Amino acid sequence: MASDLTVSALGASRLQPLPAAGLERVPRGPMAAASEHASRGAVAVAPQAPLDLGRDQRLRGPSAPGTEVASGAPRTRWVRSATAMLGFNPAPATTPKLEQTHFSVLSLNVQVDAQGWRRQGIIELIRASGADIIGLQECGAEAAADIARALGMHVVQTGPDTPVLSRHPIAPPAAGQRGVDIVLPNGQRVRVMNLHLAHAPYQPFQLLRIPYENGRFITTEAEAISEAWRTRGADVRRAVDELASRRGPAIVVGDFNQPSHLDWTQAAARAGHHPLRVRWPESSAFEHAGFSDAYRKLFPNEVTHPGFTWTPNSRRDDPTDHHDRLDFVYYRGQTITPTRVRIIGEDTANADIVVTPYPTDHRGVLVDFTLAMDAGVAAALGR
User: Fold this and answer.
1) What is the reported pTM?
2) Which contiguous run of DSSP H or E holds residue 80?
3) What burial letters (b/e) apply to 31-45, b meaning 16+ CB within 10 Å?
4) Crossing angle (nearest 10°) for helices 141-151 and 117-129
5) What integer pLDDT is reported at residue 288 of this predicted model?
6) Which of 91, 125, 128, 262 could form a disulfide with 7 if both were Cys (CB 3.0 to 4.6 A apart)?
7) Phi-psi region of 349 (alpha: psi -120 to 50; beta: other; left: phi over 0)
8) Cα–Cα distance between 364 and 103 in angstroms, integer?
9) Which of 120, 115, 152, 114 is nearest to 136 (CA)?
10) Phi and psi torsions of 3, nearest 5°
11) What angle do CA 252, 279, 329 make, to 5 degrees?
């Protein structure tokens, strides 16, 4: 059955149709394992044209020049009057404004190379999102090159199934590293790392006694933390260590296959979102390394805004599944600020941007950032 892919944004005055993709819906199973691609390297495609992003201060204190009091009146007033009479009009002191750049980042698991009709669906989803930088998971080098080519973007394969795509040039990673530098139009660089952590054993299923990948059943927070760190701790530690010396702005995106300690709280457990409180070690490790969770920064209430990204493929009350937030955009740096975050998904009940038919088993996370240029970077760039 042929379908048209349609995208709409909540709050918009109309639905925005995309070109007919001739897409056919196929069955999709939950928790598909990552594709086993071993290819590495970089593929560059010509990018689209960059977007054109395009006081009267009162001095105080006897130590400030021109403010000594004479006959009860500030001398500054006389100085200003005299200069005005002589035709001099000194400009008021100002604080220099830092140059700002705006860009958006998308994290999206495409589900095993976005095979069949879903490949075109993923391309149209990315195009509709308007994202400048994209981290895809479960996406091998061949699929990534195909998607980047269709979008006119640069692409670098940073791991077997974790490409980074960008409208702007990408500096490939140094030997043995996963992070790449995105070179923005004003010359600033942002380090981006894309992660896809191990999918099993999966601790929420272990806690809920849902059989999956031979994971043993567990009951306590301590067991969940121990199992989670045993499953993904080495990869998380390598990522955190690699970024430890990074002084500029840094962003980490990915499918962590693990919830956040900011979501599995006592309040969320009381609300019935999750069975108990768990201080998950992966999200805690990034927090301790100075990273902030963009979604939770703008939506701090985990009860009213759970932000579930897993999964569009099952009902919330499905006893064989558990809905959760597994896909993240983390950021670190004094000059970088998230200004808006949106979930991309299958319907208005679960997403801010709706794509139908929805082409993957994870919802996407789209974050708008503002990056200010500090004095050191400005001097280095000759500004």
Assistant:
1) 0.78
2) helix 75-85
3) bbebbebeeeebbeb
4) 50
5) 98
6) 128
7) alpha
8) 17
9) 114
10) -135, 155
11) 15
Q: Whose structure tokens read 């490949």?
A: 119
Reported confidence tier of residue 96, pLDDT bands at 50, 70, 90: low
C-alpha 383/C-alpha 381 separation (Å) is 6
The total number of residues shown for the chain amounts to: 383
Cα separation, 317 vs 49, whole angstroms: 45
pLDDT, tens digit, 9 for 90 and up, residues 214-259? 999 999 999 999 999 999 999 999 999 999 989 999 999 999 999 9
Position 210 pLDDT exceeds 70: yes
Q: Cis peptide leading into 335, omega within 30 of 0?
A: no
Residue in the block written with tokens 């199973």: 29
How far apart are alpha carbons 92 and 102 in whole angstroms?
29
d(CA 78, CA 59): 14
Closest CA to 264 of 239, 281, 287: 281
pLDDT at residue 16, rounded to an integer? 38
| Dihedral pair phi/psi, residue 228, rounded to 5° | -65, -45
The set of residues, in sequence order, having a beta carbon less than 8 Å from that of 140 and lying 6+ positions away, is 35, 37, 39, 113, 157, 160, 161
77 Cβ neighbours under 8 A, 6+ residues apart: none
- The per-residue pLDDT of the chain, averaged, comes to 82
Which tokens belong to 20? 């007919």
C-alpha 68: how far from chain center: 53
Residue 198 burial (C-beta neighbours within 10 Å; 0-12, 13-18, 19+) = middle
pLDDT digits (tens, 9 = 90+) for 14-67: 333 334 333 333 333 433 443 333 333 444 444 444 333 333 333 233 333 333
Amino acid at residue number 313: N
The distance between the two most distant Cα atoms of the chain, rounded to a whole number of Å, is 90
Sign of CA dihedral 166, 148, 200, 204: positive
